[in-house]
Amino acid sequence: MKLQNVILATESSDARWDLEVSDSVLQTKEATNADRGAPSSILLPPLCHPHIHLDKPYILTCNHAPSDRHPDYTDLAPQSGSFGEALASTSKAKERYTAEDLYLRGSQLLATSYQQGVTSMRAFVELDHVTGTLPLQAAIRLKQDFSHLVQVQICAFAQDPVFSTGHGEENRSTIEKALRDFDCSIDVLGSTPYVEQSEQDSVKNIDWAIRTAIEHGAHLDFHLDYNLDSSAGFLVEPVIRLLGEHQWTRRVDKSKTIVIGHCTHLTTLPSRKMLDMASSIRQQKLPLHFVGLPTSDLFMMGRPTEKQTTPHARPEAPFRQCIYTVRDWRSPAAGLLGGGLYQAGTVDDAELLFSCVSSRAREAIGLSNVGYEDLLKEGSEWRPLLLIENIKRMSVRPKPGYPDFEIPARQRVSIKDVVWDPPEVSLRSVVG
């Protein structure tokens, strides 16, 4: 493969390079001889989704007639838009799952993600008394079928309570049996402690998840503190405490990480408490990462409570302070949202936001992360990269009777150009 007239993200945008790859090794990297007027391409690290639900995509947009193999979910469209309604509708949807339905929607998600430049992801699949292991078996098929394109890390996920309610014990048993029976296919144990009916049971959920992940040598992923209630308990604190008590850093391989997803409550903490928490994480040398999902978190959290009646009473946007918590922006297009949320307009900000959907995301979920600069040294093993192509001119419809109307296209020559004005990408964008 030859890539000609490309711009490299870590070098001057004035420099243009020709790369030649053979036998999966970067053989040569030389200054280009291409005409300086020819449009260049910019070569970037590929994207990573550290938080994707493989059993849930396109539930409300399946757009086909219901059948025994492919159910219709359109009757579950939100009416109130509340968090409770979302959880209840998800439970109803799970009752309709079929193997064919899960595979179709999952394959559409993987194909679309790859089309957008994603080459790795953590995929959550819910396992409980309703679904059994059906979503997990679909995920294993998808992981195998897409293995040449996307590195899929499967997370066995407990969305429902595993200690409270009448089905808690059954849900817990379903997860534990799956970890035994599909040990070679499951990379991560995930749990949602806030769905338990009491804080005591939430802490039991956390303790169980940590013990079980250690037993199976798995990564650990919590959906946690998904609220903006400053008076509510902060469950990250028992997570940090119990990781220390169970000696995570001594008993688990260093490649295994702990992720806390959503955690919108984090934005309500006083600065002093935030600093104390960060100090405790550093002192224990915990491989702990926060993964924010601003688009979904803004949708779920940025709404009036039952006591609020006007838009002006809406709570402040989640993650208003915590740029370092963001790991998943879904696509470069969300960089525009990031710029607004954090008033992040500098070149360094753009590079940070892009790393949150690429290198930092991979680091958070414990995937090997060869540095971009090391990857582009002659003799290095070639890995997939994201190629953003430029065009020279844009054509638009002219006035009747007038000649073609062409405008010089704006050239994307750095990460900031991609983050602030995301391009269209296609299956050809990932080069490998």
Give an overview of the whole structure.
There is one protein chain. The chain contains 14 helices and 15 strands. The chain is α/β, with parallel strands linked by helices. It has two domains: 2-45 and 372-431, Urease, subunit C, domain 1, CATH 2.30.40; 47-364, Metal-dependent hydrolases (TIM Barrel). It has a seven-stranded parallel sheet. The protein has a six-stranded mixed sheet with strand order 3-2-1-4-12-15, with no helix packed on it. It has a two-stranded antiparallel ribbon with strand order 13-14. Helix 2 crosses helix 3 (134-145) and helix 5 crosses helix 6. The longest helix has 18 residues, at 199-216. The chain is globular. 38% of the residues are buried. Mean pLDDT is 87; it is low at 311-332. InterPro entries: Metal_Hydrolase, Metallo-hydrolase_Enzymes. It comes from Apiospora phragmitis. This is Cytosine deaminase.
Uncertain runs with pLDDT below 50, 5 residues or more? 311-332
Strand order of the largest sheet: 5-6-7-8-9-10-11
Order of helices and strands: EEEEEHHEHEHEHEHHEHEHHHHHEEEHE
Shape: globular
Number of helical elements: 14
End-to-end span in angstroms?
A: 9 Å
Secondary structure: helix percent:
25-40%
And the CATH topology of the largest domain?
A: TIM Barrel
Main beta sheet strand tally, sense and closure: 7 strands, parallel
Overall mean pLDDT: 87
Shape-level CATH architecture of the largest domain: Alpha-Beta Barrel
CATH fourth-tier homologous superfamily of the largest domain = Metal-dependent hydrolases
Count the strands? Answer: 15
**Structural class of the helix and strand makeup?**
alpha/beta
What's the level 1 CATH class of the largest domain? Alpha Beta
Amount of beta strand: 15-25%
The radius of gyration computed from the alpha-carbon positions, rounded to a whole number of angstroms, is 23 Å
Task: Kindly give the count of domains.
Answer: 2
